[in-house]
């Protein structure tokens, strides 16, 4: 057997691997003919180690990695697939939607209550109320107007229409903030998509959603605030009935046409009479009253809301990012509000003055951008009680304002607008962010 093994080195290797055919005497008294060179012995050793089951080798290599930690923590936990989008999914839950809507509604009510008297005076200026035109054009005029209202009607006069304001502002602000959160979660899915255009688009769409739902309440509020008579004041239900029942008066051109038809009894009078009949028929077929009256000036409102809401949210988010810059974060943020393990991406909460500053700058920018369209909107909303009562289009209303006061007419009340909007926007964003934190969203 030894002779066969010496003649066949491969057999030796197989016997070594299998452990068969060798006994203690053979290992104690090896045959001289089995002495192999050192290189051959190294090859045999390598072959022996390589012949071990590959599965066992991989198991040995993995075993240290699979050993559980002595004291496992959240850092050792395996992150499930899709955790990166968990925050976005939570924003679309009913719990988040309801809480963000409540936070936005409370923020809007707090802000509007703070600036209620200024809001009343601004509406009187914008709508060119005949009794208050003498006060426009100066800061002192604003104070005089407030003093005049307080002398005639007391504090209730300064907050006239405020009940309708709160009735409108809670759903308006609630829908605006929750719509912004939802639209932003869809439009901006990660940090790489955090651009100015996407932020502006999210804010604009959110503003359009909120104003479409609550615009009739805005018309009612403006009509209540526009009224200045001290006796026989209209109640909320009276104003609603009045707006619903308003009939647009015939246009000036149809009146002229009718007069000319009666003044010239010539052969062409027949054609004039036919035109007059067609004009009357068209007026009868057109909507005379109804829900459409509650959307006076809606086109101007929608056009103004796009830049207003878009620039407001864009500016607020941009200034907030600057306030959280690492170089100044220790002075502008609350350290205990840093993101937790549950939501590490949640930004730190700003200190009260930093949050108010962010909202104030947002209010200044948005008011400046959208104010001319706001003046046009106010004039269209009170169209049923001033002028000839016709529903003017945006271009017609703008032309009328320009004829009356020139380009300055589009900025009547801008000063009081700043005084009102800047603290209102600051309060709104501040209360909203604090409510979100307290509600755990």
TrEMBL record:
Q: What is the taxonomic lineage of the source species?
A: Eukaryota, Fungi, Dikarya, Ascomycota, Pezizomycotina
Per UniProt, subcellular location reads as: Mitochondrion inner membrane
Q: Which Gene3D superfamilies match?
A: Mitochondrial carrier domain
Show the GO cellular component annotation of the record.
Answer: mitochondrial inner membrane
Where is composition skewed (Low complexity) in this entry? 38-51
TM region positions: 410-432
Q: Which UniProt keywords apply?
A: Membrane, Mitochondrion, Mitochondrion inner membrane, Repeat, Transmembrane, Transmembrane helix, Transport
Family, per the entry?
Belongs to the mitochondrial carrier (TC 2.A.29) family.
In its UniProt entry, what is this protein called? Mitochondrial thiamine pyrophosphate carrier 1
Q: Which InterPro entries match?
A: MCP (IPR002067), MCP_dom_sf (IPR023395), MCP_transmembrane (IPR018108)
Q: Does the keyword tRNA processing apply?
A: no
Topology in the lipid bilayer: Multi-pass membrane protein
Q: Keyword Electron transport, does the record have it? A: no
Family matches, as Pfam families: Mito_carr
Ranges of compositional bias, category Polar residues = 1-18
Q: What is its main location?
A: mitochondrion
Any GO BP annotation: transmembrane transport
Organism per entry: Eremomyces bilateralis CBS 781.70
The role this protein plays is: Mitochondrial transporter that mediates uptake of thiamine pyrophosphate (ThPP) into mitochondria.
According to the UniProt record, where is the region Disordered? 1-90
* Chain positions of Solcar repeats: 95-186, 194-322, 350-438
């Amino acid at each position: 057997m030894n002779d066969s093994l010496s003649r066949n080195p491969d057999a030796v290797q197989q016997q070594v691997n299998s452990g068969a055919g060798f006994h203690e005497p053979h290992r104690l008294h090896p045959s001289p003919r089995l002495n192999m060179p050192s290189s051959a012995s190294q090859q045999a050793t390598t072959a022996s180690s390589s012949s071990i089951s590959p599965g066992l080798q991989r198991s040995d290599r993995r075993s240290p990695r699979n050993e559980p930690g002595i004291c496992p923590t959240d850092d050792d936990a395996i992150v499930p697939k899709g955790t990166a989008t968990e925050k976005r999914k939570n924003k679309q839950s009913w719990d988040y939607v309801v809480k963000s809507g409540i936070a936005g509604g409370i923020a809007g009510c707090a802000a509007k209550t703070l600036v209620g008297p200024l809001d009343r005076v601004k509406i009187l200026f914008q709508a060119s109320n005949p009794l208050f035109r003498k006060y426009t054009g100066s800061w002192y005029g604003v104070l005089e107007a407030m003093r005049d209202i307080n002398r005639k009607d007391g504090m209730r006069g300064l907050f006239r229409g405020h009940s309708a304001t709160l009735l409108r502002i809670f759903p308006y602000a609630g829908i605006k903030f929750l719509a912004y959160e939802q639209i932003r979660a869809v439009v901006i899915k990660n940090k790489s998509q955090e651009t100015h255009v996407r932020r502006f688009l999210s804010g604009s769409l959110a503003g359009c959603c909120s104003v479409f739902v609550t615009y009739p309440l805005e018309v009612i509020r403006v009509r209540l605030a526009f009224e200045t008579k001290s006796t026989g004041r209209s109640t909320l239900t009276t104003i609603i009935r009045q707006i619903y029942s308003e009939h647009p008066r015939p246009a000036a051109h149809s009146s002229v046409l009718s007069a000319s038809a009666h003044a010239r009894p010539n052969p062409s009078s027949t054609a004039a009479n036919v035109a007059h009949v067609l004009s009357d028929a068209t007026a009868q077929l057109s909507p005379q009253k109804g829900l459409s009256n509650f959307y006076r000036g809606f086109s101007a409102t929608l056009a103004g809301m796009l830049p207003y809401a878009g620039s407001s949210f864009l500016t607020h988010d941009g200034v907030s990012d600057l306030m959280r810059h690492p170089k100044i974060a220790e002075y502008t943020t609350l350290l205990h509000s840093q993101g937790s393990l549950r939501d590490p991406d949640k930004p730190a909460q700003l200190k009260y003055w930093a949050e108010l500053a962010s909202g104030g700058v947002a209010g200044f920018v948005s008011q400046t951008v959208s104010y001319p369209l706001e003046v046009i909107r106010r004039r269209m909303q009170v169209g049923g009680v001033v002028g000839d009562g016709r529903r003017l289009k945006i271009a017609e209303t703008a032309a009328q304002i320009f004829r009356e006061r020139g380009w300055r007419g589009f900025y009547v009340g801008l000063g009081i607008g700043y005084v009102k909007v800047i603290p209102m926007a600051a309060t709104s964003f501040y209360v909203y962010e604090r409510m979100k934190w307290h509600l755990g969203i």
